[in-house]
Write a structure and sequence with these properties.
mainly alpha; about 90 residues; single chain; about 80% helix
Length: about 90
Amino acid sequence: MAAFVGVAATGVVIARAERRRRAYTPDQVRERLRERVARIEAEGAPDLAPPPRTLRERVADRCEAVARSRPLTALTERIRGRTGVT
């Protein structure tokens, strides 16, 4: 029963917020966006966190770390010594 009441209450909150959002005219939305842009330009841009690293970047970093590890470095040096590759 409590779960049903919780779901219903959540639905009511979402519906109310959606009604408020849809009540703005396109001109009002543009005006609010312009105000926000002007405020940000006046205050300076907030410090933004760096963009999240992609999976490819994280895997490449991990591969580099493994390649620099001592056992693999020793093996690479032995292979280079046998093949004459520098």
